Structures are given as C-alpha cells and as structure tokens.
Amino acid sequence: MSNRNYSIRQLIQIQACTNCQACADVCPAVAGSFDGKLSAAYRLEVLGRLVKARTGFWRRLGFVKEPTAEELRAFSDTVFRCTLCGNCRQACPAGLDLTHLWHSLRRDLVASEAYPGKIDMIRENLDESHNVFGEDNEERAEWVEDMPDAPEHGYVKERAEVIYFTGCVSSFFPLAQRIPMALAKIFDAARVDFTLLGEDEWCCGFPLLGAGLGGQLDGLIANNVEAIKARGAKQVVFACPSCYRMWQEHYPQEFELFHATEFLGRLLKEDRLPLRELDLTLTYHDPCDLGRGAGTFDAPRDIIKSIPGIRFVELSNHRENCSCCGGGGNLEMIDASLSANIAGNKMKEVQATGAQAVVTACQQCVRTMTTYAKRNKVPVEVMDIVQLINKALAGED
Ligand code: SF4
Ligand code: SF4
Fold this sequence. Notes:
The protein is an alpha/beta fold. Helix content is 48%, strand content 8%.
C-alpha cells in the first residue's frame, strides 16, 4: 500500500472526519447489512490509521503498526461492499469528498493485492473482450435482430450525426436490451440520424474505476474516441448514466455529450415526439450517477410531466437524497445478496408511494429493481424513462 494513491487534499480529509455518523444513517449498504463496518465513518477510521502507519514519523514513535495481510483483507471486504452511490458524500456535514476517496482507496487496495477475486474477472473481461461480461464484442448490436422493423443497416452505419453509445449492460443483458430497442424506435420516430458503433464500441471504462483499476483506461478511451471520429459524429447520446459520467469526467471533450433524458427533452421541445395519454401513477428513482453524480434532476421530471394523464409522486428520498437501488460499485458481482437487500429496501420505499410503476433512467437500476420485484412478487412495474416515452409515443403500445 502507498499513500501516493491519495492527493494531499484527500490525506487531510481522511483525518478530518468528526465521527458524527451522518454518513452511516444514509448508507444503503449499512441498512442492507445491519453492519456498521460498511459505513464511511468506519472506513475513514481504519484508513486514518493505515495512512499514519505508512508515515515514517508515526511509525518511529511506535503509535501505529503496519496492518497484517489478514487485517488488510478484512478491511478490503468492507471497502468493496459499497455501491459508490455518493449518499455519504451528500450527507457529510464536514464536506468530505468521499466518493473520489473511495475510488482512490480501492486503487490502493488493488495495488496492495487486498481485493475480491471478482476484480480479476473484470480486468480480464475488459482486456480480452472489451466488455464487462466477457461476451464476444462482435455481438454488441445483436439486440437489433430482435426488432422486427429494424432497417437493413441494423443501425450500424458508416456515418451519422449522432452516436448512440449503448454501454455493456444494455448491449448484452436481455432484460436491459429493451432500453436500446425503445430508444432506437424513438429516434426513428423523431427522424434522428444516428448510428451504433457495433463491435467498435468498447466498454467506457467505468467498471475499471469502481474496481480500483483506474490506471488502465487509456486503451478503451482511445478506441471509443477514434470510433466516433471515424463516423463524423459531433453528438453522443447515452442512456447509461455511468457511461455518460465517464465520458464527462475522463474522456477528451471533443463531442457534445447528452444523457438520453436531455436529448429526448430537446426532441419534445421541438415537437418531434407526439405523446398520447397514459393513465398511470408513477414515481421516479434518481440513478446515483445521473442525479448526485452528474447533477441531472430536472430533465427526467420534465419529460414525465410532459406526458398527458400521468400522475407523478415523488419518493420520500428523492433528487440529491435519493437512496441507491443496490446496482452500483460492482456490488452485484461482489456481494449479490447485499445488492438484493438494498434493492428490497428501495422497492419498499417505492411501494409506500402507492405508485403503479417506478421509472428510472439507468439500465442497471432497471435490472436490480426488476429482479427484486419479480423474485418477491412486488406488484410494481419497473421501467426506464426511454421505455416510458416509447409507450407514450402515438401508435406505440
Ligand atoms: S458510497 Fe453509498 S454505499 Fe458506499 S459508503 Fe457511501 S453511502 Fe454507503
Ligand atoms: S458524515 Fe462525514 S464527518 Fe460525519 S462520520 Fe461520516 S465521513 Fe465522518
């Protein structure tokens, strides 16, 4: 381990925690596990000791000892059971930038070889297949074959004005593939000149950040940027908030980037999407990376409110305070049962609103909430906002 994984600001922030526990009160991992060791407060207490143990001054005084490999592993087990939802950062009265700190800490633990085995799988899948599932990347746009009205080019064109960057989950996971299908139909209805990148789309790199492998992004970034340039596009649309955030924060700023909610909001303002009435009471779940992460709260709400007939109710925790669905931070791969417990708490909050449906704007949230609802027979429909618009498009069921 090395303190070089942290900035000076982070090293100061690690020691600035007041142990007020505000972070623990809002942490979905603590609520889903009843284990206070998953809180930011506990993590900072241990990390503070580790940082001091690596500092010559403190070591010479004999106040702190280097952790054993076993202690490091136990600590790592708590660090990776976190969805990186950022609710602790939002709640922290000391203003500590906790989310970025968790990325640095994961990087530190991976460099120290104290990390869950699943991290190696993520690394290998991205190295060998360029997608997080280890699937054949040539099959990235295969979902188009399930669209009876798809054009002959299968939405993979040599040039287009707009790129739809689909992301790994929506490309390969059957339940999530309904989202790109819906978005392609909406784009067709609004006559948007768009293309997919097909096999030239590689993972955006977001899973690497959460895996503590942020030093290995360069190849993925270079490939994706070149693939877009080759098609002459200036605009890129993402239905995945994590891809969107990744491109905003880690890619060269050469294109105009839109989350689907922003792009579709524009199309609605331009009267390019005639929506019919939907008789539905629904609530909206803010995906962590779109809401707290990218600060996009109004675009999805404006879309929902523009559909005639919809009755919109807010969750008790919404906007900046929205609680995570359990799908972030690679948690599903590392501790599937904790991820499901978090989704369960989320669905209880959804049911308390009395809504018939919960709409979100992220394929991973759709996955975790739908899986929980199906397994536990929760009578609430889960859908992405792209699917909601497709449902409301005149003539679409
Ligand atoms: S990022 Fe979310 S899950 Fe992780 S410690 Fe903070 S509040 Fe808990
Ligand atoms: S909310 Fe901030 S200051 Fe309070 S215990 Fe958590 S990390 Fe420390």
